[in-house]
Amino acid sequence: MYKHMESNTFTEKESLALITEMIRSAKNRLEKNSGLPFIISGYITIVMITASWFLLNHHHYWNLLLFSIPVFGFLSIPLTNALSAKEKANHLDRIINKTWLILAFGLFVTMVGGLPVWAFPMIFYKTVSYFLLFIGIGVIITGVVIRFRPFVFLGFLGILASLVPLWLNFFDKTHYIVWFADILVILMMIIPGHILHYKRNKSHV
Amino acid sequence: MKEKQLNEKESLELITQMIRNTRQRIEKGNGIPFLIWGYTTVLVSLLVWYLLSTTGNPNWNYLWFLIPVIGFPAMMWAIRKQEKGVKTYIDRVIGYVWIVVGIAGLVVSASAIFLWNLPILFIVILMMGSGTAITGLIIKFKPIIFSGFAGILLSFVCLIVKGYASILLFALIFLVMMVIPGHILNVNKKHY
């Protein structure tokens, strides 16, 4: 089938065939997983951000709840793999996983590094901005790898909007931050996740 | 195009070959993108640090935009000069990663004009470190993986250190994160 494989080179046509197959496979796997990782991570993020916000009134240390989000981000990767255990992950799946792992790691470093610098409750406003920025980057990269446009558009929206919490803080409108962040997570993760889920159901009826 | 189901062995061999191709392309490209962005950032940082520390005039901060102004045309020139060859999808994915990280960096940097207390040096290192680590993991090249993670881990130094000294640290981290791996790629290239 791939005649040049033995000589370790392959033609543009063969390369294209392989790429098409890999994208189709990665996209199918994501669709078969029903966008569940996005839906689960999205809802967890919303719950944690909202809970952290309301609990702030009791004690600033409830900010630390935000640390659980990148941890859940790490955990969602084995969960995805478990859900698609019947199928071998291809290289594009691994690229997506590695991207999210590094972004979650970067986010974790930001929070740990920010602890001694940003006083409570300032860390909440700052961290929410970084969450939106990093989630936006991850969503776009996932979108371009599997060629799913809603992710690309909404990811860019996330990057642009990630600065809004800092503006809200600047103008002393901090009570809007939590709702703004929740809406963005719904737009960037939960809605596209449900679109994937819907597409899967439609194609498996 | 007719869709073909690859068996596990074929798939693995072709993916390995794609990674090898991409890695060779990057290595043959002398790590030029790393050197262009690395040296441009280091030199502009030193210039801004010098002008800020000697004059105290914050308007010199606008010189940070010299990085994309010099970097993008230099990259275009390097891409044109680069050896022609079949681009694999891995090449494109790496390109996408850097486009996304670059746009995000530009958006955040531009907004720092208005949000003056934004820890922009920290954010830029964090994002570029993430882009470097993702690139390294995709092509499975250890010097780039290590330098990317080093960038991410060292980024918070720019959050803790205040004042003009943070600009010097920023330049130093870029040296470790981009210039050194760029030169390692150059040395590796000579073995091909």
Overview of the structural elements:
Chain A is mainly alpha-helical and 205 residues long. Helix content of chain A is 75%, strand content 0%. The longest helix of chain A is centred in the C-terminal third of the chain and has 27 residues, at 177-203. The radius of gyration of chain A is 19 Å and the shape is elongated. Chain B has helices at 8-28, 32-55, 66-81, 89-111, 120-139, 142-154, 157-160, 165-189. Chain B is elongated, with a radius of gyration of 18 Å. Chains A and B meet through α1, α4, α5, α6 and α7 of A and α1, α4, α5 and α6 of B.
Summarize the structure.
Chain A has helices at residues 12-32, 36-55, 68-83, 91-114, 122-146, 149-161, 164-170, 177-203. With 205 residues, chain A is mainly alpha-helical. In chain A, α1 (12-32) crosses α8, α5 (122-146) runs antiparallel to α7 (164-170) and α6 packs antiparallel against α8.
How many individual β-strands of chain B?
Answer: 0
**What quaternary form is this?**
heterodimer
How big a fraction of the residues of chain B is strand?
Answer: under 5%
Largest interface: A-B, 53 and 50 residues
Percent of residues in helices of chain A: over 70%
The H-and-E topology of chain A, N to C, reads as: HHHHHHHH
User: Residue ranges of chain B: pLDDT <50 for 5 or more in a row?
Assistant: none
Low-confidence stretches of chain A: 1-8
Give the CA-based shape of chain A. elongated
Structural class of chain B: mainly alpha
Distance between the termini of chain B: 35 Å
Number of helices of chain A: 8
Number of helices of chain B: 8
- Outline of chain B, from the CA principal axes? elongated
Structural class from helices and strands of chain A?
mainly alpha
Terminal Cα span of chain A: 33 Å
Count the domains of chain B: 1
Using only C-alpha atoms, the radius of gyration of chain A works out to 19 Å
Main sheet properties of chain B:
none
Question: What value does the average pLDDT of chain A take?
Answer: 74
Structure summary, number of beta strands of chain A: 0
